[in-house]
Amino acid sequence: MAEEKINTHEQNTVPRFAVLQLSGCAGCEVSLLNAHEWTEKFQLTYMPLVSSAYDVPEVDILLISGGVRTDEDAHHLKNAVKNAKRVVAVGTCAISGGVANLGNRDEVRQLFLKRQDRLDVPRLLPRSRPVDDFVPIDLYLPGCPPTPELFMAALTDPAGYQASLIVCQECGRKKLKDQKPEHLLGFQKGNVDPEICLINQGYACIGTSTRGGCRAPCTRAGHPCVGCRGPSNVLIEKDSQAWLESIQKVFHAMTNIPDDELKEALLSPQLALFLFQFSDYAGGDRPPRPKEKVL
Amino acid sequence: MTTLTFPLSRIEGHARVEIEVQNGKVISTRFKATEMRGFEIFVQGIPAEQMPVIVPRICGVCSTAHHVVAVKTLEDAYGVTPPPLASRIRSLLLLGQLLQNQATSLFIFTMPDRVGADSLFEMDDVDVIKKKHFEMAQRALKIRELGTDLITLAGGQFIHPVRAVVGGVNAGIPAERAELMLNRLQQALPMACELFDAYWELTIRMKDRIGSWGDDQPAYYITSTGKVRPDFNSHEIRVMNPEGECCEIFSPRSFREVLEFKESEYSYAGKTSYKGGVIRANSLARANLTAHMGTKVANGYLHRLRIEFGIPAHPIMLFELGRGIELVYAIERAAQMLEQPLDGEDTDVPYTPRDGEGYGLVEAPRGPLIHHYVIEKGKIARAEFIIPTVHNMGSIERALKVAAERYITGDTVNMELEKAVGRVVRAFDPCIACATH
Ligand code: SF4
Ligand code: SF4
């Protein structure tokens, strides 16, 4: 559907796109700059990080990164989508809150209010919110940040892109049947065997249920997957409890970690938060995102 | 009273400048950071070991600096010293960051000011000048990609790295991969120099057009880079007074005794000062406080800068030339490091986590970056991020005032003011995501 719209742009045969950056870290934009093949195929019309233009003009594709943290974010967002034929939410912040979700815990939310007593700055909303709480989204591109390859796929041919189902398929580490750790090591502790699955080594890797497509840079580099691409298609339309249970099952099968220890670790608010800061797709009262719309 | 508002672009993050004018007199120039994500707040209660993966998300442009400093802060708290190989690999990571950042700042953020364009990404096959800019942008993107590739090599992930761990790094760099990168760096050096030469030339032309290298008065300079040659994996901070004497050396642990921090009532970013004086961090501070670059080509450029401007050099456009020198330096220095084996030695030492307090320091592209954590029961009870852009806040506003006074006379505002505001701010390459965190 996108393709037809793009090619019928009247004045210009080169598709035009814009990037609206809300409250995020600009990592998504930096990744987009790495995907520099787009410079030959698209006209970038608005992206304050790299260009001086102050309003989103009419575009074929609008990429939105970052979450909605302030009233100004909400205002920019609602205005920008009016001029876009197709709206893509990029990065975990825009889709499920990302790290900013850590600030949505009740025990810290209050503290934000204290930062508010300033003159004429955008007001902070009571919590950070995903972009689809405000505007309809045509395509979701999760990742923290999405890789340049994924950006190119989202811009050129989202329907034709075949991502692996889960990160394990891209990781290249071997899962061993007979190497079962007795305890959880946590996330990172020196000396990692380069060939063997991180779960076999006692690390809390959740690549088994995380959406593929990133090419597993973290696990290849010896760091457990933290789930920034969100749940795989098997789990994406279910609630976060289902996801946690699936992770638990994997650890049951692959380790000798005592039940209590596993439960405590996996279900501890901190660990859950750490993982779900990146990935809580179906949390809250929002309907789940249909998997067809997620790249 | 009238308030002139200038939105900002081609900087990292969301901010604007407000200038208050009354009867032709500039009353105030304010730099207003308009975003806040609240990292100091929301990391409370998070297991300390997760910090090196969470804090890079403060800023996707300087993520590597946050990653490395988080690890160093935890090491300080746990009383761990990483082995030499780990320190070298962390230095390499920081060089990748420097390369990436300086290329972005020079060619994507500030080159358009020099060629009179809104952006270098305007594709146009008919207009020869635009076409030339576009080609320049493409070469610049290749150079900056080399920086992110270096981060990937040393840090595992290209934007939010994962390889630095408490106690060291989680792996060495295999010889074959090091060699591939070495070749690419060696090939890129002439292209980087060519781009920087063009940039220097265009900067001179811009100076001729405006009639100044960027006014503003002398300031204090602050950096943590090496005294003799640059070292971004740093340990102590130095301050130089406006006359060019080093007047203070301190550890990150004692920053509160040396720097005064003030929250701002009109911006989400605060301000620091030194003994009531305006401070400058970033490339010009390093150029003023380092004896030499320690690499051949970069040293040649530094020499040229010194012959013309002496030490300390004050004009603000020299921040940008300093960035170019560091771009060249990062390529040369990374190549030097990759010529030595980065594998086959211990990559980490064992450690036992404990509660307590830690301070960490690195030199980020924008200046000394300090993290401070208080750890209770393994969790973060309190975190502070001391951000280099915040050190520059006072000097940005002062330089804006000079520019405003230059372009506002009686009841007329010279239209050049809008451009000048952008130029002044970009000279300091502020990072708003970091400053407000
Ligand atoms: S999704 Fe990750 S990379 Fe993108 S803006 Fe958010 S924190 Fe940054
Ligand atoms: S669980 Fe993690 S380390 Fe193991 S194969 Fe999957 S992604 Fe790789």
Structural notes for this entry:
The complex is a heterodimer of chains A (295) and B (437). By secondary structure, chain A is of the alpha/beta class. Chain A folds into two domains: 16-161, 3-Layer(aba) Sandwich (Rossmann fold); 168-275, no CATH class. Chain A is 33% helix and 12% strand. Chain A is built from twelve helices and seven strands. Chain A has helices spanning 2-7, 27-34, 38-41, 71-82, 91-96, 106-114, 148-156, 168-171, 217-220, 240-254, 259-267, 269-279; strands at 16-21, 43-46, 59-65, 68-70, 84-90, 124-129, 139-141. In chain A, the strands form two sheets. Chain A has a five-stranded parallel sheet with strand order 2-1-3-5-7, sandwiched between helices. In chain A, helix 10 (240-254) runs antiparallel to helix 11. Chain A starts with a helix and ends in a 16-residue tail after the last helix. Chain B has 437 residues and is α+β, with helices and mostly antiparallel strands. Chain B has a single domain (39-404), classed as Cytochrome-c3 Hydrogenase, chain B, CATH 1.10.645. In chain B, the strands form six sheets. A four-stranded mixed sheet of chain B has the order 8-7-6-11. A three-stranded antiparallel sheet of chain B has the order 1-2-3. A three-stranded antiparallel sheet of chain B has the order 12-13-14. Chain B is globular, with a radius of gyration of 21 Å. The chains are: A alpha/beta (295), B alpha+beta (437). Bound molecules: iron/sulfur cluster (2 copies).
